[in-house]
Design brief:
Blueprint lengths: L1 E10 L2 E10 L5 E6 L6 E2 L2 E5 L1 E6 L22 H12 L4 H17 L2 E8 L15 H13 L2 E8 L21 H15 L5 E3 L1 E5 L5 H10 L6 E5 L3 H11 L3 H8 L6 E5 L5 H10 L2 E4 L1 H6 L7 H6 L3 E4 L9 H16 L13 H16 L16 E5 L10 H11 L5 E6 L2 E2 L1
Parallel strand pairs: 1-4, 1-5, 6-7, 7-8, 8-9, 8-10, 10-11, 11-12, 12-13, 13-14
Antiparallel strand pairs: 1-2, 2-3, 5-15, 15-16, 16-17
Helix pairs in contact: 2-3, 12-13
Amino acid sequence: MKRFTFNALLQNDGWLNNCTVAITDDGKVHAIEQDSEDKGEMFDGYAIPGFQNAHSHAFQYAMAGMAEQHENADDSDDFWGWRESMYQLALTITPDDLYKIGVDLYSEMMRNGYTSVAEFHYVHHQPDGTPYPNLAEMGEALLKASRDTGIKITLVPIFYQKGGFGKVPNDRQRRFISSTVEDYKKLLEASMACAKNYPLANVGIGIHSMRGVEPTDIIRVVNEFSQDMPFHIHVSEQLKEIEDSIAYLGKRPVEWLLENINMSDRFHLVHATHLTYSETEGIAECGANVVLCPSTEGNLGDGIFPLINYQKLGGKWSIGTDSHVGLNPLEELRILDYGQRLISHKRNIMIGNGFQDSGMYAINQSVIAGRKAMNNFSEQYFKIGEDFDACIVNAEHPTLKNTELKHLASRIVYAADGSMMRGVFVRGVKI
């Protein structure tokens, strides 16, 4: 049994001052005590639930910030131009490269306060497009990186079949492609078999996008595959994607999903940037979650998600770092909030569901929906019998020192940065 004492620990209903957590040898919370005489190891820090990175493309960390040279300011450069650079990178990555990138990336995620990552993984095959003898070779490189850094991982091997609505895949996508549902099932099963060898890992189901898989096959995967795994899909990120969907299906992407898929809270719609009010309402009503990646969405010029309407309808959201131009969960939360403030000219955006404190609300939304992306449906931040996954914030940093507890959550969210993080605990292990 290990014991750690923090200046304060954040629970769903507020802060517990001078709080000691007793942790079993397998990393579970055994007891949470205030003003205990047996303090164990003491931290001059505040413990908050570890952040959940609900959307990551690990290999793209190798090009973060490297697509910003534009020869002619009058030429159009957008998501689709950036995608060509990404394709070129994807064609060069070896399993060993991916492992090394993953180690660097996941270490940085933890340094910034993330304790879990959902890896939306679609670089599956050899550079010529043929499968590796181990179908999950590239995915296993990321599982190894997770093991060797200590972050929890939900590997989401992605079904990627088409080059666009009704289009065959182009040659630059050759490492991504599973031609049939049966091919994808083999990839998923190989990934699940690999993940059993890694204690911090589990597996989710993923469709790249509406444009990336034939709609009839999306329905098959949803209906025929496990109902007990998180389901991730990119959707409605770009205006062109919506225009192409209307031309091919006669429906907008989210409109089609709502009419054809029985979505629930195991579904995670990544970006969902461009929605009508009825689509926004439909997502909230069915209980699906939206995964927002503000730093990447800003970098790619995607647009701004209709968060204000979505929150009023009770919609749930989490955050991810996607292409990893940003790796700080606090920065993601601030960009998300400030984008809404700029278009609404209001400041009280991050409130609702009983919260009047923006920082508390932001932490709650990102953690609870983020956990669901990892197949963890626990809604209590720290609970007896569950893993102790925490982010420790430096209580002696000048920005936070002498802050009253009632202001602490918002001061962390709105005024802290990565330098204030003292480390994380993952399953009771201090990192």
